[in-house]
Structure formats: C-alpha cells, structure tokens
Amino acid sequence: SNSRSSEPRRTGGDSAGRRKTGDAVVPGVPASEPPSLAEPTKARDPLPPKADQQGPANVSPTGADYNAPPETNAQQGRYLTTSTGVRLGDTDHSLKAGPRGPVLLQDHHLREKITHFDHERIPERVVHARGAAAHGTFVANGAAAGISKAGFLAKGVETPVFVRFSTVLGSRGSADTVRDTRGFATKFYTDEGIYDLVGNNIPVFFIQDGIKFPDLIHAGKPQPDREIPQAQSAHDTFWDFVSLHTEAQHHTLWNMSDRALPASFRTMEGFGLHTFRMINDAGETCLVKFHWKPRQGVHSQTWEEAQLTQGLDPDFHRRDLADAIEAGVYPVWDLGVQVMPDNDEQTFSGIDLLDPTKLVPEELAEVQIIGTMTLNRNPINYFAETEQVMFNPGHLVPGIDVTNDPLLQARLFSYIDTQLSRLGGPNFSQLPINRPHAAVNDLLRDGSHQDAVPGGVAAYRPNSLDGGCPFTASTAEGAFIDIPTEVHGAKVRELSESFEDHYTQCRLFYASLGEVEKQHVIAAYTFELAKCYEENIKLRQLGCLANIDAELCQQVAAGLGLPAPKPTEKLTTPEPSPALSQLGGRWPVAGRRVGVVVGADTDPTVAAAVADAVRSAGMLPLLIAPTGGTFGKQAIQRSYLTAASVELDAAVLAGLAAPADDAFPARDSKAGHQPAGQLDPRVVKLFGELFRQAKPIGVLDGLDDSGIADVVDLGAPGVATGSASAVVDELTELLAQHRMWQRG
Length: 744
Ligand code: HDE
Hints:
Blueprint: H1 70-73, H2 108-118, E1 131-140, E2 158-167, E3 182-190, E4 193-200, H3 213-220, H4 236-244, H5 249-255, E5 270-271, E6 276-279, E7 285-294, H6 303-312, H7 316-326, E8 332-341, E9 347-348, E10 351-352, E11 368-377, H8 382-387, E12 400-401, H9 406-422, H10 504-512, H11 515-530, H12 535-546, H13 550-560, E13 593-597, H14 604-616, E14 620-625, E15 630-631, E16 634-635, E17 638-639, E18 650-653, H15 666-670, H16 681-692, E19 697-700, E20 719-722, H17 724-736
Helix pairs in contact: 3-4, 4-12, 5-10, 11-13, 12-13, 14-17
CIS-heme D hydroxychlorin gamma-spirolactone 17R, 18S binds at residues 125-128, 131, 164, 166, 183, 185, 198-200, 205, 210, 213, 273, 390-391, 407, 410-411, 414-415, 418.
C-alpha cells in the first residue's frame, strides 16, 4: 500500500496502525519504504531442467544414488547414534535420579527409542498378509515383440524384478503350509516404468465381480466371534458362502486339490488370471493370459506333510526360498502367454475371456514362452522390502492394457487405496523397494512421509515458469497407451449370461486330474466339511459336488456320513486337459534335500561317500546323526531329534542308527513309537513317514535286517538298495519323477 501521508510510518501496520500479514515485527525500528505497486514484476529465468529430466539415470527422489548398496542408504558410520545423528555412549541404562532413583522424563534417547519401537508395526495386508520375497531378473526372448510394444519384452532385454509369494487368508504370523491359494506378484522395474503382474498360483477366482470381494474375504477369514480358525477355509462361514454362491465352486475345487498345498514357492505355477490386452507397434491388439512355468516342476505336499510342517516349521516356504537362493540353486520360471484374437465378443472357443472363473485349456491355446525369470538375491531387510513392497495390477507399461473383466476393474481401484492406510499415506511409491528405475517427474506433491525435495515452482501443467517442464510424451516417445476400445451399453448392475455357467469348468478340472489327485480332492472336501458344524451347509455343498462329479459327491458324502444328493444340472463329460494335472513329467533334481541317516557306529567314510554322491548329483545332503556336532570330518546338519520327514525329498539309511542308551524317552514309547529291531525309534518314525509320503528311499547293503524292513517295504516301488553310489543314482532318477504314487 502506498502511504499517502508524509508522516513517518509506524512499525508494522497501515496508516491506521493495523498489522498486515507479512510485515516483519521489529519493535521500535521504522520500516523501509514498501516497493511501489507500479513497479513491474520481472519474470525470472526458467529453472534449469531437474536432474531426473536429463534421462533415465537411476536417482532417487532425494538425489541419492539409487545404485549405491542399500546399506549406505540406511545405516552408516561406526557409532550408535540417535535418529538425528548424535553419537551415544550408552543405550542400556535410562537416565535416573541416582542408580536406584526414578527415571527422568528428559531422557531424549530413552523416549526416542521407546516411541519409535511403539510404532514399529504397520497394518498387515488385509489379504495376502503372510509372504516371502526375492529379487531377480527377467530376460525376454523377444517372442512377444510381435504382439506387444512393451520395451521389456524385446529380445534380450534384461529387467530387474522383485517377486512376493504369499498365502491369502492367514495373518502375518500364520503358517506357510496351510491349504490356501498362493499369491505370485511380480514387480518389473522396466525402463518404461513399473509393470506389476499380480497373479495367483490358481488360474481362476472365486468371484466374477469385484464388488463381492469383501463378502468372500469376510467369509474366509477367521469367524468374527472367536477369531478362529486361523489361515483355514475349513469352517462354516467359508463353506456357507461358497455353497450359496456357486460361481466360487471352480476356485474352491482347485483349493481342495494339491495346488493349494505347494511343496515350495519354487514349485508353483503362476497365473495372471485375468485376460489382458496387448498392442504392438503397428497398433494391432490381441488378448492374452499370462502363465509362469517353474523349471523346477509343479509339486505339492501331501495333506499329512502340510499339517506336520505347520507345527515343525511354520516358516517352511519362506525358509526354503531363502535357503535355495543362498545356496545358489536359483529358482527359474518361464513366462508364457496364451494369445487369443481380440474379437468383439472377447470369447475364445466358447469361453468368455472376461469371466475370471474360467480358464483357457492349454490344449486350445498353447502357452508361448516370452521370457525367463531367475530369482537370485534374498532381501536384505524383511520389513523394508517384503513388507513395504506394494503391487498394483494397474501398474502397466505401454503395450499392455486391461480388459473389461469386472473383477480386474475393481482391483484397479483397490490396490492404491489400500496402501493409504497400510503404508500410511500417498507417497508409498517413494519407498526404496517401490521406486521405479525409470525417471519420475509426476507433479505429485507433499503428503505424509514425503521423502523427495522437488525443485522448481511450477507443480502444474501447463507452465512457463519451470521451462514448461515436465513435457507430455508422444506415443513415439513412449507415452502409455490406453488402447481405444469401443464401450457401449446401458448402465446396469448385471453380468452377461455366459457368466452363469458355474460348473462346466469344474468338471473339466476334475476330469483332468489323475487318480491319486482325485483321491486327495475327495479327502480334502471330506476333511474341510467335517470341520463345519452346520449340517445344512454340508448338505448344500454336497449338492454342488453332485453337479461336478457323481463319484466325488458320493465319496465325500460317505465320508461325512450323509446322503449323496442328485445333480440339478446335466453332467456333461468334458475333454480332459492334461496340462491341469501335476502328475507325470521329469524334473531337475537340483537343490533337492536328501537325508543321509547314520548311527554312532557307522563308518564315516560310508556316510561321506553317500553325501558326496548326493552333492555331485546337484542335490543337498543333510547328514542326520544321533546327536549334533561332527561325524568323522563332516558337519551334522540334523540330529535324530531335529530331523523331520517333511523337509526331506528322499533319504538314505546309511548306517545302523542303533538306539543310543538314552534314546527311548518314556514319552516316545507311550506315544507308540516302539523300537523296530535295532533302529532308533525316531529313525523308525522318520522312514515310516517318508514311505507313507511316497518319497524315494535308499537302504545301503547290509542294513536289510536292521529292522528297517518293518517300516519300509524294501520291494516297493521307489525303494533302492545296494551300494552308496548305486543307491544315490537310483534315487536321483526316482526324484526326477518326484513321488512314487504307485506305492498306493
Ligand atoms: Fe488382490 N488384493 N484383490 N487379488 N492380491 C491385495 O493389496 C483385491 C485378486 C493378489 O504380495 C491387496 O497391497 C480385490 C485376484 C496378490 O503385496 C488388496 C480383489 C488376484 C496380492 C487386494 C482382489 C489377486 C493381493 C491387499 C477383487 C489374482 C498380494 C494388500 C476385486 C489375480 C500382493 C495389497 C503382495 C493383494 C484387493 C482379487 C492377487 C486389498 C478388491 C483375482 C498376489 O488391495
């Protein structure tokens, strides 16, 4: 304001003495003349381009070198400090008024340490809370270059990835080997930005429309009154929902199959599940379904193994993944696509490609391999990486787009939204594990946990102040392409009629299983339904089974002691899809764990010969002896007390394994583990379980009359006898076939 009076101005106010915002309050010092309003404002020069506009250099939002080893981004220096970097001389004693006196509130280090600790936990994921992850690389073979313009799919391009595997229903601390679907989420840090393939190990889903997801999860999670059972579908609310809501029957059938009990994350298939749309350089589109094919084979635990493992080693899958990577046995998956024409109906061979409860049999559309992923590095810090990683099916790159699958459409909303509470605000993309490796210039500003210090003044577009930056890209410059697709129709809360077929593919899946797999499915339904209290729910689910397969329905009904209902639909007999069965095939044995069981009197050179033969076949020998310590020159990995059948793929009895003087604790004999012949009861138990689990077993020459024959039928399929090298050779061959189901 121009002062019209010639009077000296009073400090900090207008002529009436009122203070104005922005005036400095300096009592007693006259203010200098304010700038005249008539003075023109001179535009300043635009700021130079920001560092991350120069090109795809790997810089974090704060300018830290993204390629620097992570430890330099976190803990530095040699001394313990406060969070503000002040060195500390003591962290074990709080500040007190005398050694026996009260603790002083002024102890900053105490308060900071405890306060931070109090807030260490963040909300766990509402689903998929329990997980394990690893870093790796994806190398494209170029086969997809003709259908997608995505840069990371071009021949030879290598892209860093981070993969998180998970169970769905259990809490963060629940066991790994429960009967459940597994998540298989892959983050590709491509040069064109993040691409997330957020899939499962089962190719179909429980619901066709995302609006039902809360219902599904409320039914599957522990019941709200007592909060039990944990990480299980074997309870009333789950079976109530899936029996009333028959579109869930297909996924449920997969959950009752061996697929829901993976032997390892390394032996799981992965499925993108939904149909996605791809576009190539010429602007041509096609529809695709993604598949991860494990080079390790697709293997499962038996239900007995899964249950034992839950108690013996609740971290079984997490440990297995980390151990394999640490041992250099890197798990490898091929990524494949089923490619379908992008027709108006979006159907293929009569299958509605927008219905997420339907799969496309591989015999109808071949899975074509477009690249290979190797997981080769364990996370350094579970929380920073595995817990804070976030995936989003909406994280797409040019060349890949979504379809109208109503389940996928709802997911596109959910995955950002959930991070706002889980990761505490909108800046989760700045967490190191979530940062893109491509340059980011997003005009997103501020918010909780803002880690970046953006330069410039123009956080908007268009602008002239920051030199017009950032610019929008043309398609040629790599802009994301929302593939233009026709949309028409009235606004309705409906699904198309083809979504009403809930049973055809249940029959397809069941008909495609081998005999032993069918027996497992029958046992699973019988077990789970027997855990329900309400008879009406069991009867209703039996009614659903009647529409899948008469034999399945009858056997489960018999197990429950209930009548088998009649089908309400005509039972069609589908053409089986052999690719849906896990049986058959030969698989690499690399990394398989072979127990080498010895007794106190065993010749150490014999044990060493077995272990060496196992090692040279690329497998991992675990020496199992009466106690820990060393055996000859070899380290003992498991004692009789800690050895467990569930962690072995096969075992060799290499020595007498005679009972030690104290090997028969009273409780063992009470539990019925009586010594067989001269063998230690724990060894008897171990081999009895391995035999029942249909795993290959070797018995060295001269041990036939040790008592082993009482628990292992030495003439049964998959039991090798002979010298160390002959036995290991035969076991290696047997392990390539995985299990000896013919043992019956
Ligand atoms: Fe998810 N899902 N989901 N989901 N999902 C989440 O995201 C959701 C669905 C899947 O390791 C959540 O960050 C809705 C299908 C995986 O971090 C949440 C619907 C498939 C993971 C969410 C689905 C998945 C999640 C929980 C129905 C297989 C773990 C925390 C419309 C194709 C990712 C989070 C990881 C996680 C919502 C259905 C796979 C709440 C609403 C179908 C592998 O956003």
